[in-house]
Amino acid sequence: MAVRLAWWPAGFTGASQVLLGQGQNRPKPAECVKSRHGLTAACPEPPCLYQLTVCLLFFPGLSSAQQKCSKTSSVVNCRTSLHAHGVGCLLLLLLLLFSHCPGALRPPASLHQPAPCRLRCSQPSALRPLTSRLLLPPSSPSFCKPFWRSGGPFLPRGGLQVQEAPGTCPARRQGWHSDTMAGGEKSVKALREVWRRAENSLCADCGKPDPDWASSTLGVFICLSCSGIHRNIPSISKVKSLKMDHWDDAQVQFLAKHGNAVTKATYEAHIPIYYYQPTYNDCQVLREQWIRAKYERKEFTEPGKQLPYTDGVKEGILWKRGRDNGQFLPRKFLLSEREGCLKYFTKQDSKEPKISVKIDVINATFQPAKIGNPNGLQITYLKDNKTRNIFVYHKSGKEVVDWFNAIRSVQFHYLKVAFPIASDNEIKSRLTRNFLKEGYMEKTGPKQREAFKKRWFTLDHRRLMYFKDPLDAFAKGEVFVGSSENGYSVQKGLPAGTQGNFSWHYGLTIVTPDREYLFTCETEADQLGWIAAFTSVINQAMTPQEYAIEAYFKFKS
């Protein structure tokens, strides 16, 4: 590939062309444009890597190269700007004249027949750091139009794009060793075949479709988000892009030998049934600790391994938000499988707990955005058939996830005793759950003539709760959402003739056997999202326990 690079000091263009064999008798390239403050030229012979390196080191003011390539000539014309004084320009000219690259003083026989590539012939060893940064391997069919990433070892900051002139690519590609070409093309083809396997169609860690990254040390295919977590544990996993990075034969063979299925069989061999396996919709701390638990701590490679959430008891400090003052203060928490409850104490030496909650009425879900902490956990439970919220966090992501899975572990074993004939999967479905939907809506009163007020709503299966503030300990009210076969439905819009002062105009109505509940949303997307969430609940048949809850709501009203 004949790449023509040269930098000429402004004001010395004519003289330097004569000295380098581009005098009056040689045609001036059409793309050669003089810059007012910088360097510009086109040269039929490239300066050697020594020249390029010295120029870049000596003139740190050299800005990013801005390429301008001619599609009708084999000469690649590059323009670059150098904010330097006349003395600097003169020194640059001297460096070009007295460098150790004699080819710079000898023009080729013809501008239309490019000379051999000096980057390959004169400095073949120095070319490897450059080609290793190509988006495509040298043997790729698209190597004629490579893109050199910014920060290359011999390129100005910002990178340099090089495009070979039409018709020169086949000849220049012959300069690469034939075994390198064949090996590169074979590696790319083999990589595509491994990538297309059904087992590798989902991210190995979160299940997101179409992963385009992989770990060259673990042999798993992962998504962009999970690759960022892998990058934080470089001693365990080294990730590369399947689209932008070059994979050598050994790495491709390693991927083919392993893949998601084989690697999961090793690192996920003995996951407890109650352990929460996050998806791509879950928060960062859950996904990160899941990845670290698998590959870094290897928690699931051996059966019966003692872990912080498998002992049936857990005690420690969590920062809890005060119900009235809103301050987060350290509190001692105690979880006991034997007693079947979760307790917390206002003081570490207290003998009596502030609150003791039965484990079967507890729910826990991560709420980093709402709490304002990446490790924020919301614990809810029923008190007098009303929902009570506790907001906690821990500075360690591992610790708060251990608490979360410890709660699930105690719940699982408690329910196994309470429902001995139920299967493990049935019991697993009754463990902690995420809220179906949360967000702001406006609501009016039962007479439907009151002003609409903005409230924070949480849909926890069949309980629709609304709060004045998202971090309130108790809900201002709750609505039971039953099934369609019992007379419950959701409708888009508000009833005709609805009065009231509402600022949002995307309404929806929940119809129950007793009354209608009117809400407005800020956007149509919010409206459709809430309607979809309510519809998913209403279309489900009610359980005997839910009939009992419905009866309580009717009695209370």
From TrEMBL:
Transmembrane segments: none annotated. Residues 185-308 form the Arf-GAP domain. InterPro entries: Arf-GAP_dual-PH_domain, ARFGAP/RecO, ArfGAP_dom, ArfGAP_dom_sf, PH-like_dom_sf, PH1_ADAP, PH2_ADAP, PH_domain. It is found in: Cytoplasm. Coiled coil: none annotated. One of its GO terms (molecular function) is zinc ion binding. Its main location: cytoplasm. The keyword Zinc-finger applies. Keywords: Cytoplasm, GTPase activation, Metal-binding, Repeat, Zinc, Zinc-finger. Residues 311-412, 434-539 form the PH domain. GO terms for cellular component: cytoplasm; plasma membrane. This is ArfGAP with dual PH domains 1. It comes from Cairina moschata.
